[in-house]
Amino acid sequence: MASRAVKYSSDEYEISYEVVNPKCKKIVLFLHGWGANKEIMKKAFGSYLSELCHVYIDMPGFGKSSITDPLKTSDYAKIVENFCDELGIKPDIIVGHSFGGKVATLLKPPHLVLLSSAGIVVKKPFIVRAKIAIFKIFKLFGFGKFYKLFATKDVSGMSRVMYETLKNVVDEDFTKHFASFSGKALIFWGENDKATPITSGESIHKLIKNSSFFPLSGDHFFFLLHAKFISDEIEKGINFEPNEAKNVVLDDESGIEEIR
């Protein structure tokens, strides 16, 4: 495991990351979902895609990476882009789970792999909409500090910075971003996903012209059960030409280390 200081706007973020197969020419970047970290992605895919250099990162505010102020999805994308520039890499493939799928889409890689991606707005149940309305009234009268009374279990113990970040990113409509993506996309989805329903995956598949859709058994973390199948489809669906892609060099001073 290593870390790299990344500057964005007026802030500096300490980004924790790990690299597997650093001598491989082609690079795949893995972006975790909300509330997760790089470890879950490495656990799923670290033993597969042996012909690719894997880069796993903790996005700001998750795992061991720092955060100072609330961010938007576009901020995350720019920070990840700056991180790649710092390492001198240009990912050929970006794999994004849930929230990470939105970040991956904004980065516009040649090859995009979405795992139950967020980005399609689904109407909330009445009780959730009522709680949001009541909270907005409380906030209007200066009682915003009681936000945890109206928060879901997902934000239990969450810092105020991360809560504000969640509010920024949770209900973004990424329809136009999916529709404008011009690369090749592989879309995998859990058939019993309650966080991002399979209808969202079907919608994204229709929006991205050059895409393939794979519904698989399981919930929001279905990819933990199907990592080999997903990896095989990535290898089959993305036919690489011989290239002059830059190697990720194993160098102690660079902060890059191989994880065996």
From TrEMBL:
GO terms for molecular function: hydrolase activity. InterPro entries: AB_hydrolase_1, AB_hydrolase_fold, AB_hydrolase_sf. Keywords: Hydrolase. GO terms for cellular component: membrane. Pfam families: Abhydrolase_6 (PF12697). The keyword Hydrolase applies. It comes from the Bacteria. Residues 28-130 form the AB hydrolase-1 domain. Transmembrane segments: none annotated. This is Alpha/beta hydrolase. It comes from Campylobacter concisus.
